Amino acid sequence: MIIYTLLFIAGLIGGLLAGITGVGTGFIMIAVIPLALANMGIPDVLIVQLTIANTIFATMCSSFLNNVQLMIKRKMYWNETFILAMVAGATASILLQLIVYNSTYSKEAYNTIIIVLLAYIIIRTLSKLRKRLEEKENITLPKLIVTGISGGAVAALTGLGGGSMVIPMLNLWMKVDIIKAKKISYGTIFITSLLLTFLNIVNKPSIELSYSHIGFILFPVALPLAAGVIIGSPLGLKLGEKTPARVISYLFLTIIGIVMLRKIIELL
Question: Has keyword Cytoplasm (predicted)?
């Protein structure tokens, strides 16, 4: 019962942070889900795949709610979102089947990828914050395609939804205001996580699980997470609209710094 409560709290906090920062719910969940799975006696060989699959499922629930609210308020950026979502979704779907479902994709490789990614994001974001310059937005199709590929790769290989890459690339590379970047990220995250969730449902784990599940979606994990994000995401979105861009950037850095530290400890 304690594990399910912790998963619900992780979903609640993840949903709040997703609404505020736009990076998806995954940062909290990739730290909590492996602990829950180990406590449930899930074999090590399935920990990474199940962590990614159930994080993505919760992220899909959260991003759906956030996108509905943005559409009601007519605050979507359809052109940029569509291009990023299509490229990210295609990239993520391919990598999920080629790499993540492969038993050689170990926990060590998983944690190493996350640590390197987060370290890069922290360095680049801090560099941007120090400059304090107003720069002209520079969105181009090639840049959107590269960003979509990067976001899709991150979503498939880590379960973070892709926002952790999409937002920094929009903000740092294309000079998009972080509030706008956050809104574009919501749509990209939803389409990508929807495609990946479908794949995680139709594919089956290599070892039979004793818990109720559909494919890689494990009900005792996915349902408490989803309940948490359904409550937390709308609240986070409202808070995010009242939060200054600079504060969002520092909150974003704090979250990924904590997760990076956790993953370094796991790796060591």
Answer: no
Q: How far apart are CA 184 and CA 220, in angstroms?
A: 31
Nearest one of 63, 7, 16 to 218, comparing CA atoms: 7
Structure tokens at 105: 């994709």
Q: Phi and psi dihedrals of 24, rounded to 5?
A: 90, 170
For 175-185, how does the pLDDT look when each residue is reduced to its tens digit (9 = 90+)? 888 788 888 98
Residues 6+ apart with CB under 8 A from 43: 207
Is the distance from CB of 25 to CB of 186 less than 8 angstroms?
Answer: no
Please state the pTM of the whole predicted model. 0.84
pLDDT tens digit sequence for 65-115: 878 888 888 878 889 999 999 999 999 999 999 999 987 888 888 889 888
Element (H, E) at 218: strand 217-218
Token output for 79: 């052109």
* DSSP-assigned states of every residue in 78-107: HHHHHHHHHHHHHHHHHHIIIIITSTT--H
CA 21 centroid distance within chain: 11
Cβ–Cβ under 8 Å, residues 189 and 162: yes
